[in-house]
Every structure is written in C-alpha cells, then in structure tokens.
Amino acid sequence: MSITEHVNAWLREHYDDVISWRRHIHSHPELSGHEHATTEFLAGILRAHGLTPHLFPGTGLMVDIGPAGGDRLAFRADIDALPIVEATGLEFSSIHHGVSHSCGHDVHTTIALALACALAGADLPQGVRIIFQPAEEVIEGGATDVIAWGALEGVRTLYAVHVEPKLRVGTVGVRTGAITSATDIVEIEVTGPGGHTSRPHLSADVIYGLGTLVTQLPALLSRRVDPRTGTVLVFGQIESGFAANAIPQSGRVRGTVRTSDIATWRVIEGLLDELVTATLAPTGCGHVFRYTRGVPPVLNDDVATALLADAGRRVDPQAIIEAPQSSGGEDFSWYLEHVPGCMARLGCWSGEGDRGDLHQGDLLVDERAIAVGVRLFASVAEEYCSTGLANR
User: Is 162 annotated as ligand-binding?
Assistant: First the structure.
C-alpha cells in the first residue's frame, strides 16, 4: 500500500477524531509562548498512536516517524493563537475571552497531527519529521528558537500550509519565490524644547515634524527602492501633545515596513535612518530612530514548489492554482534561510457567504480543508520518497 493509500484509509477511519481534535484546539487557544495545554494535548495524542514526541523547552514539540538514518522530509505547523475576541458564534468557540485562533493555526496543527498519526503505521522508506512550532504570531517569531533547538538537524526540505479564506476549499495556492513579505517595525521619537503655538519660531515644532515624517517618508522611500520589490511603509500609530495651544516636547510615530525582496530587506534599516535624518533636518527637531527587525520574506524554493504542485495535482487535478504574493509576514521564512522548502495557501472558504479574512474574530474555516491538507502532505511525502527531493 502506498503512502497516500495508507493515509487516505486512515483518514476515512479516523475523520471524526480528527475533527474533534481541531475543535478542541480551537476552543482552547493559547497565546504565543504560553501553549502549555496545547503542547500536552498534542503529545498525548502522538503517544497514543505509538509515537515518541520530543518536547521543546517551554512549549512546542516535534516528532520523528520512519527510518532514523538519511535526510528527513519535514512539515511545520504553528500552534499559537491571537489576542482577538472570537465572534464566530461556533458551538466550539474559544473558552478564553480575548484569545482565539483567528489565523487558522488550529487547522494547521490538526493537519500536522493527523498526518503524524496516519504515518505512524505507514511503511516509510525515508524519515519524516513533524514540527509543532510555538509563538509564530510574535516578532521575531518562535521559528528561530525551534531552529536553535535542533529541529532542522538532518532535514533536507520543509513544507507548510497556511489557510486562505480568499480561496475556495479544495484549492491550493502555490507560488515560486516570495509568497509573503518581510515585516519590520519602525518607530521614530521626535523631540524639541516645547513652547507656545503663538511663537513656533522660538521652538522646534514636534507636531509639524511628525506630520512631515508621516507624509514624506513613505514617498521618499518609494523613490529609493525598486518598485518591483513591493516595498511599502505604512504608519499605524502617532501620538503627541496635551493642549491645543502648546507645542509638545516629544511625540512618536510607529509603523511597519514590508518588502518581498530579501536584498532590500537587508539594507532598508540604514536607508530609512538616512531618510528620517534628512526629512527632519529642516524642522530643527531632534529624533531617536528605532528599528525592530521582524521576519524575512518566505522565499519558496522552485524545486520544492514544483514537487508540491505535482503532489497536489495527484490528489485533485484541479486543486493547484497560482497564489498571489502577500504583504503579510510569516516566520516560516527563517527555516528557508537554512533548508529549501515551500509554503502553500490552503483554501478554506466554503463557497457561501463572505470570504472573510485572517486576523479577524469572525474568521470561519470550512473543516473540509483539513482533509485536503492531510492528503496534500501525504502526497508530498510519497512524491519526495519516490522521485522528489530525496534524490536531489
């Protein structure tokens, strides 16, 4: 029996269990770095299926299946939730007010869990590793810790999926190269002596300086980088002042800078620092520039992406479509700095009602997407073990 045949048979027999796992995880969300109960739940199910999970320090875990020697194929799922109030009205909604799986990580985790349990009884010619990563939703992301803990040792290539409510369930979006963007945070504190609004010439106008940054900095940046890189600076926070007739002594703006180009990402901090200094110089204001590096763009390897696309077509000839490039960030990118791999978009829209969006409290996921994800990964494993990256 082939890998896919084995997994399909297992899935038919255990489908109700798989759905119950997803609903338990969904109703018991935990924030980044606090996924203790989730880790225990996953470890318990893996042990019940004869597997030996390796727990990471704190939270998260991984499990190896199949032969110990040789290069491993790996799959990654993220297990953390968001600080968002759930508004789905589902019977299995979050029991923790203000915390919810509004990014679909419960689905990713369930797919990986079901795959691990199904493969436990399969005849695998090569080893497979399933990584359950904590803390994806925070900067710089839990991936760097997981890598430091040895999760990529012996791994040849790595795969993941992310639910996509813009795509109909049953479809899988693939894209070679950048599929997400780098996401960094920029903060500029602007300072001056303060003063009265009737005498701005005797002070340095912090409010004017902040306004100049907000209006001019994104435009200047667009003239210093290649527009094909999808580089964009957007401010989301500005704060200063305490009275209508007083020039404040300080204020700040905070925003995100995103790019799909790895070369641009590596130099953009210095470029922005230069532009901030030049923009504020005529105002007489002082400033402090703070830049928080987030994650690089997810750069899908061409061979790994082609293998996943072929594997998806084996499951359903109509499943594979081209995914648009996203401006969102994903710390799966850190793994791809070390090994080739691919992240795909997993359609989860039922075809009825609004398509919804990620990071929204009313995100609804068609649970049929779970079986699609499990079958996709099983097909990837079969393709890898026969003619794919194992022989690269």
Answer: yes
Collect all residues with Cβ–Cβ distance below 8 Å to 128 and sequence separation of at least 6: 64, 65, 66, 72, 73, 74, 75, 119, 381
DSSP at 57: S
Report the distance separating Cα 378 and Cα 372, nearest Å.
10
* CATH of segment(s) 3-179+298-387: 3.40.630.10
Per-residue pLDDT of 214-234, as tens digits, reads 999 999 999 999 999 999 999
| CATH match of 182-292 with 3.30.70.360 | yes
201 marked as binding residue: no
* Single-letter amino acid code for the residue at 345: R
Known binding residue 137? Answer is yes
Query: In terms of pTM, does the model score above 0.85?
Result: yes
pLDDT tens for each residue of 317-340: 999 999 999 999 999 999 999 999
Q: Is 359 flagged in the annotation as binding?
A: yes
Q: Are 326 and 166 in contact (CB under 8 A)?
A: no
| Closest by CA position to 26, among listed 95, 122, 83 | 95
